[in-house]
Amino acid sequence: MNRIIEREQLNESVVRIKVEAPRIAAKAKAGQFVILRANGRGERIPLTIAGASDGAIELIFQVVGGTTMRLSGLRVGEEIPDLVGPLGNPTPVEGLKRVAVVGGGVGCAIALPVARALAGQGAEVISIIGFRNRSLVILEEEFRAVSDKLYVTTDDGSHGEHGNVCLPLERLLAAGEKFDAVFTVGPLVMMKFVAAATRPYGVHTIASMNPIMIDGTGMCGCCRVTVDGEMRFACVDGPDFDAHSIDFDEAILRAGTYKEFENEARERHCNLYRKRERDD
Amino acid sequence: MKTARHAAAVRDPSERIGNFREVVAGYSEETAVAEANRCLRCKTKPCTAGCPVGVQIPAFIQEIANRNFEEAYRIIRATNALPAVCGRVCPQERQCEGNCVCGIKGEPVAIGALERFAADHHMAHAPTSAVEQTGRRVAVVGSGPAGLSCAGELAKRGYRVTVFEALHKAGGVLVYGIPAFRLPKEIVQREISELEAQGVQFVLNSVIGCTESVEELFEEGYEAVFLGTGAGLPKFMHIPGENARGVFSANEYLTRINLMKAYEENAETPVFRARKVLVVGGGNVAMDAARCARRLGAEVTVVYRRTEEELPARKEEIAHAKEEGVVFDFLLSPKEVLAENGDVCGLLCTRMQLGEPDPTGRRRPIPTDETVRLDADCIIPALGTSPNPLIARTTKGIAFKPHGEIVADEDGKTELDGVYAGGDAVTGAATVILAMGAGRTAARAIDAYLKNKE
Questions:
Q1: Which residues of B touch A67 (CB under 8 A)?
Q2: Sheet of strand A14-20: strand arrangement
Q3: Which residues of chain B from 263 to 282 reach within 8 Å of chain A, CB to CB?
């Protein structure tokens, strides 16, 4: 169960794996996630399903802490001990005809299945994907395949347009382009700015939240997000929410709850990880 | 001649707050026999009447007195699927022991400790045996007390039972909620192994409602479904500042510690290492969170809006918490979480006073004008839980109450044919033993339903 059948390093810290999981693959819709543990005593982490076909799901993740480091160390043929899903609500794509999909960094892995679902229902998809620099660019060709128009930005200008994703987005909005919705996923700060960019135009904007979680079924409450002044749980009420109603500043603070621990965990696992890399 | 109740050995508080090992030791054979001999064997059996699963208490105590320990276990097990658990976590003072005739003038027989003794003795000595199967399949959703009890009863009646569990470990609240120092996880594992030996199959990492629906379970050939999905959705205080870093629901805090073992050296799951913790609430979950926080090295105060007399937690838990240095601050109701740069630094509370009794008979807390400020870097609301929301959102044909409780009759029958429910999912947060009673009742109803369907 949960056997890894493909593994690909997309950039220095982002990995794509394909995992045999027929039950999850049969149900997964764009925007839903799984929770997994990478070893028998590991932490439970949520990862959005980047794609599902032929009894397998794709997961794309950035190595940030102990679990993602371990996961990245698993080879083809090895199994993920615990994998549960699909959890969360699918991204509401129904009825949308013209959508801007705005992804940042590894968030593009979550934006891609949404763009794909939209393209699949015949919607016009304008994708904007942004990265810090050229070496971090991922999924560009995959986005091109499902987008009517694709804009790529890098913070340092080493690839595509110089700047962040808000530049092309604002330009399009200022030029009077109309969208049924803007879907955004990426770093919290980026989503906050995307929401700020679309607000004056009154464009319905959906942000996909990826807060700290344990169970993914509404039990722990650590994934709580304030939306329109109300407490919502990303796991069962989201992960997508109206971006104009999300308290991003609070979400940014909350995301840092275990920062120190994560850094320590990375240090701790690093040697193990490097050793494995050397062995390969 | 009357003899005094035999106390079980309790580990020294100063030693036990350094670890998560079990606090209360069990009886030795000699002590158990001596305690069993205190039972008056009244014909009216008020103790059994006080037991939600109707354990034949005088009968099993008699067997302990006769040193037939395995027979004592068999008698308990006939109506109670998880004796080792119940002996440890039931509020006996409000159930069996609360009704004990010995307790009228003296101290009640230590029924809980005797039940635990019989179960532990069985685990240590007896082999388990498999049961013959009928081949008919029943799905049990949730592996907490209700689900385990229902599965055990159905297996005993020869059904092929599959238990679906959302988490990576079976046991539900027995595993993620109740700490090891109160209920060692090996005990839960042994009870689960007993069920496996009876032919019950456990499917982990499976969220019914997401991974597959109730409808699909029927399509797969299950002839009946029991929903024991519990009440896991935590209630919050709904006051300003509640989302500051350092405010954790008791569920989150306990899950990190109990299920994920975040207290262990080199654990992969983080847990917030606080200096000063305030636990808000007065139930068993509040006591569990407070005692865990003590073990993680924090100073701990329980903040409760009524007085000690109204504390809903088991007496033993309150006593143990105090012994371990947990401080109680009564008649305070949280008003605002204070934070500095997003991190919790204190809690503003309204001073309360007790007014007239409310419908539950407890005196109602009434706010005064006084505001009290408590310092803390961590606040843990333990204010109860509501039923898990996923079944309600994904299952058509079942009725739910406004707070998400499944509507079921006294046999656990829901409005959907072949679907039964019990435990906290139906009642809202209650006790392990009530959930087990409901699981067992539903199992009998399922048995009758399936026999009728033949």
A1: 268
A2: A4-9, A14-20, A56-62, A45-53, A33-37, A82-87
A3: 266-270, 272
